[in-house]
What does this fold into?
Amino acid sequence: MIFSKFRTIVMGAALLLPACSFTEEALWPTLSGEDPAGARAPQPRVQPQPAPPPSVPSQQVAAPVRPAPPAVVAAPQPALGRSNFEPTGVTPGAATGTFVGKKVAELREELKRLQAAVSQHNSLLQDLRVKMVQDSQRYHGTVAAINARLQVGTTPGNPILVQQFNAAQSELDRLSGDIGEMNRLATAVTSDSTLSAYLSESAAAAFSLSGAVDEDHKQLAILEDEINRSVVLVDRLLKEVADDVRRQTTYVATERGNLNLLSAGVKSGEIYGASLVNRAMASAAPVTSGGRSAASSDLSGRRPLVVIRFDKPNVEYQQAVYNAVSRVLERRPNATFDLVSVAPNAGGAAAVAMNSTKARRSAEGVLRSLVEMGLPPNRVTVSANTSAQARGNEVHIYLR
It folds into this structure.
């Protein structure tokens, strides 16, 4: 009896071993391009056996089914903007010989210079977008190869995976370099925005100059329309570049956390998944392209955490903002903030609109700084307001 049981166990193990070996060979990816199972020997032809009579039940040994490992999906690169910002050109005009006519000619040349710069910066933006997509595709391809090997299990510290991990780090560094180039582009477009605002003010002021003929005002009206179209074009270009920078900066920061955990997986030969920090951020409120926006905000009865007055060029506010926000987060780790651009409401409608635009650009710069400091964009709501107490453009940060 004992010998009979032992013989049954041995025969069962012999039947199970080929099935397990086939499963391993089918799932394991090959890196060399050769057949992972090696050259197959010719198999002898087996004659089919007749089925047993119905009265005798046949016994079958089922091969064990290996559970499939959980699927690992890499976070895709955030979408880049698709707009193309090409200026429409400048309408030529005839010289009138008046002082206003000369002023119109000067403004026309300045507008041509502005549009040439915008066209150049637009071309650079399109090239950067193509490069970022290519770098991201290479990065995700490398990470996918590492995850595919870890998914079926491998040896701790597999040198092939170590080499692939180093390549993934280099590819992510290239993406960081692309973001740096886009930041420099944003700085250049900001200069275009400053020039466009100056041209808009100069064209409006030229109508009040004395000594003009009708032809001067006719050409000036055409030029003012083209300047205003350029102002809108530059504003849209600046906003789209800023949106691309914010999305890609957050994306690269998220992938840095994922790479840290992937490094632990390569060392242990096991797959872990996404970073817990990134999961926590993903489970919070949906992340928008640049903070949640609102048309206006009621400031009555609210005390700002920080007030930044942009009363001179290159205001150094970053350290003060970092200290204030970090102190709040120490006490309230889940705190959220309201970022409000405040413009003075003195002057006519045109002055209020221009100040509101400048205050909004300042608020976008503060938001970029907060994101670069590590504050998730979904923690910030961006809005705009005007105030009779404000003497210049300001940005207020409130604790919500």
Summary: Residues 290-400 form a domain with the 60s Ribosomal Protein L30; Chain: A; fold (CATH 3.30.1330.60). Strands lie at 292-293, 306-309, 337-344, 380-387, 394-399. The chain is about 55% helix and 5% strand.
